[in-house]
Amino acid sequence: xxxxxxxxxxxxxxxxxxxxxxxxxxxxxxxxxxxxxxxxxxxxxxxxxxxxxxxxxxxxxxxxxxxxxxxxxxxxxxxxxxxxxxxxxxxxxxxxxxxxxxxxxxxxxxxxxxxxxxxxxxxxxxxxxxxxxxxxxxxxxxxxxxxxxxxxxxxxxxxxxxxxxxxxxxxxxxxxxxxxxxxxxxxxxxxxxxxxxxxxxxxxxxxxxxxxxxxxxxxxxxxxxxxxxxxxxxxxxxxxxxxxxxxxxxxxxxxxxxxxxxxxxxxxxxxxxxxxxxxxxxxxxxxxxxxxxxxxxxxxxxxxxxxxxxxxxxxxxxxxxxxxxxxxxxxxxxxxxxxxxxxxxxxxxxxxxxxxxxxxxxxxxxxxxxxxxxxxxxxxxxxxxxxxx
Amino acid sequence: xxxxxxxxxxxxxxxxxxxxxxxxxxxxxxxxxxxxxxxxxxxxxxxxxxxxxxxxxxxxxxxxxxxxxxxxxxxxxxxxxxxxxxxxxxxxxxxxxxxxxxxxxxxxxxxxxxxxxxxxxxxxxxxxxxxxxxxxxxxxxxxxxxxxxxxxxxxxxxxxxxxxxxxxxxxxxxxxxxxxxxxxxxxxxxxxxxxxxxxxxxxxxxxxxxxxxxxxxxxxxxxxxxxxxxxxxxxxxxxxxxxxxxxxxxxxxxxxxxxxxxxxxxxxxxxxxxxxxxxxxxxxxxxxxxxxxxxxxxxxxxxxxxxxxxxxxxxxxxxxxxxxxxxxxxxxxxxxxxxxxxxxxxxxxxxxxxxxxxxxxxxxxxxxxxxxxxxxxxxxxxxxxxxxx
Lengths: 389, 389
Prior knowledge:
The structure is a homodimer.
Chain A: H1 6-9, E1 23-27, H2 28-45, E2 48-49, H3 59-67, E3 73-75, H4 78-85, E4 91-94, H5 101-116, E5 120-125, H6 128-141, E6 147-152, H7 166-176, E7 181-188, H8 199-222, E8 229-232, H9 238-244, E9 249-250, E10 278-287, E11 292-294, E12 309-311, E13 319-323, E14 329-333, E15 346-350, H10 354-358, E16 363-368, E17 375-381
Parallel strand pairs in A: 1-16, 2-9, 3-4, 4-5, 5-6, 6-7, 7-8, 8-9
Antiparallel strand pairs in A: 1-10, 10-11, 10-15, 11-14, 12-15, 13-14, 16-17
């Protein structure tokens, strides 16, 4: 178990300005509003939610989401599941393929542990080899345990997953040959569609997804195999899957923090008004004639979905952020402005992509009462930081 | 101190194929050849080397470099210096600006600790405010300790640093007013020039750097202040600074591992033939009709300087790597080929940029005897992983 360093524990109850930079800060009020919006949305649509823990990688946050109604959590890696289960998270779905026999033995061990606690482990497959290797590990390691297995179909992401249709039926049948494996349904996630900017593009993409899912589901059902659940979706398209009547479970995770990239999507009126809740606190360490420099670069935040944007709690941002390398950001006056920030002043950044940003940090600093005058309420450990295997 | 997990310790002595994926693997033979090449190069040019530890963030590697002749280490952040000093590294230079008074008190404490061990701490400044705050912290916290202070000048990077000339002289004079601060010379690093692709661009850029440094150095010297050292340079341009007669110390760090981006520079015959020594070991977890998928995405390797390239130990790479998100890479046949990798097979990736890639991992797995048939020799802890403050 990771311990929280003394200097971070001592921050609790202190004002925001005592947080050393760069640091990853959660606006707890905003985060909790996002959780409530998501809970209300899923109640209204009578759909389960199993938010993706690859975002926050924290057992504390996972349990908070369960309290609000989440039925469990997705993870992308086995070691994420192990890290969360070590801190009391009992319903976990590895929405990804695992092939290595040594890892599949750990999957079987974890399935046994969670079942003994009254929880459940699930996993995705997209090959007959994967089914056979999983069944073999379950038989060898935990013969009295069962695991839920979803067949992943590729609905436009172009990554893992078999094509919709016959190939998925063949895998469902293969799963049925093993008593320890329970065919749990279809994994169908169109990741790229989450970031299509216009409502129309997203609607069209998910309409096609639904067609593919329904066709595959009906084919499997027609062969006499029940399809208990279709799972997938993300923060960008959740209104579409929720309204489909086909998806029984939403995997959206990013709604919790909302990154700068999701803010570039044109919002549909049906989508809950999620707010930015995760920020990099940075400090201006150099002021030169035409630019200033802050102490947060891409070792502080991920840049795969673009650079962070500057957030000014009290109004529109006066500065823009440009890449300054691993440990620096370059600040220029925002368009129409001419002021540079002062040496030592605080800069708040909204990460371009929250998932890999959180993965850079061992702890998140939870602030209550706003970024300007708030107090540090608690330090949240990123239990599965760096959990890649 | 970070402990090494049991499952990693048990890898020692085992064949490479038992390393679970994704993992960051050092080819120790290649790394040690790079170290020898650097040691020979600096001996030949009679220049000191203080390699940048922001690359490897590991005390074990820092001490190995000292044994080969390095005079100490650069770091970019105070917490990196603290993490390395906790494991016996005693000569450290924070080649960056620090403004926060709470951090400057830690700087003063660290200076005291290192001085007591016979070592030394150095830091860079680029403002009168920074000089005054540093002097104040030294006076308050460790009045009997001295710290080396370099004035950073901006020689083309456009980040921190005052302009060459009068502004640097003013800071050298300001430093001289404080007995605890010793003016140690000039910090002059042109980071962008490291990645200029042609020899001519790099030569021209560093020729301009040398002009700016000499002008500034001579101005300060003419005022009666000795300029003990000029420090800077990187792996891309080290032949230029080494031959200048002006730089007394080289900060190049990337030579140790050599990333895919540095491999895109046209090599100058004078440059030592550094080899790739750092690799992401990945596994193919899905094979579809026109592509395959491996289990390493940008939570396994940084992509700020481009995607990783595929390394095939026994010949030219059969596959190319495309972005598949946080946890996946998409593999296609290399141009002219039509084969996809087999399910479960191993893929070796050369990171686009080693520094932020290492920062994603808690441990590096050191292999002896090559990537195909080698054995795991030792597990190296990334002591300063995530050390941002």
